[in-house]
Amino acid sequence: MLDKMRISSVLVLIASLIVGCGSLKEKNSGDYAQLSLFEKRGISSESLKNKLYDQFQEWQGVRYQLGGLSKRGVDCSGFVYITYKSRLGVRLPRTTKMQSKLGKEVNQRNLKTGDLVFFKTGKATRHVGIYLENNQFLHASLSQGVTISHLDNTYWKSNYWKSVRI
């Protein structure tokens, strides 16, 4: 009788540990999913910002050209593609449409450096940029070429669509 009680107690203890660990794992995996690819790789926000600002310095003012992928002209998704590949070591799809399907959607209030920000700029036209800090994002603008803009600018604010964390 005593052995059956001990076995029963041990089984209850094991079951409670399994359940407890399972719920802890779920919570942590959810938190982990909110981390950016860069945080998961141990790249600091400061390092990431520096890489993005270096990219801006190198590409600032390069004119917008639909389908462009060079310093003779680049479009928004091409600039994001090039920046992620050359500065951040991450290969993204080439088009805004495909880039918008990546990662996990995040609320605009919770943006982190490196998140992608998307805009609906026409009936079927989309625009993408890379969030920097302080409500600013890096992108290839139709009117200014490669530039940094503010999310609270009237145009960008009214056309904001969503943000994605890679």
Could you characterize the architecture of this molecule?
With 166 residues, the chain is of the alpha+beta class. It has 2 domains: 1-34; 37-165, Alpha-Beta Complex (endopeptidase fold (from Nostoc punctiforme)). The protein has helices spanning 2-34, 37-40, 45-59, 76-86, 96-99, 154-159; strands at 69-70, 73-74, 104-106, 116-120, 126-133, 136-141, 145-150, 160-165. It is globular, with a radius of gyration of 22 Å. Mean pLDDT is 85; it is low at 7-33.
CATH architecture grouping of the largest domain: Alpha-Beta Complex
Helices and strands, in order, run as HHHEEHHEEEEEHE
In the CATH hierarchy, what is the superfamily of the largest domain?
endopeptidase domain like (from Nostoc punctiforme)
Q: Which quaternary structure do these chains form?
A: single chain
Structural class: alpha+beta
Number of domains: 2
Large-scale geometry: globular
CATH topology label of the largest domain:
endopeptidase fold (from Nostoc punctiforme)
Distance between the termini: 57 Å
Tally of contiguous helical segments: 6
> How much is the radius of gyration in Å?
22 Å
Percent strand equals 15-25%
Averaged pLDDT = 85
The tally of beta strands, per DSSP, is 8
* Main sheet summary: 6 strands, antiparallel
Major sheet strand order: 3-8-4-5-6-7
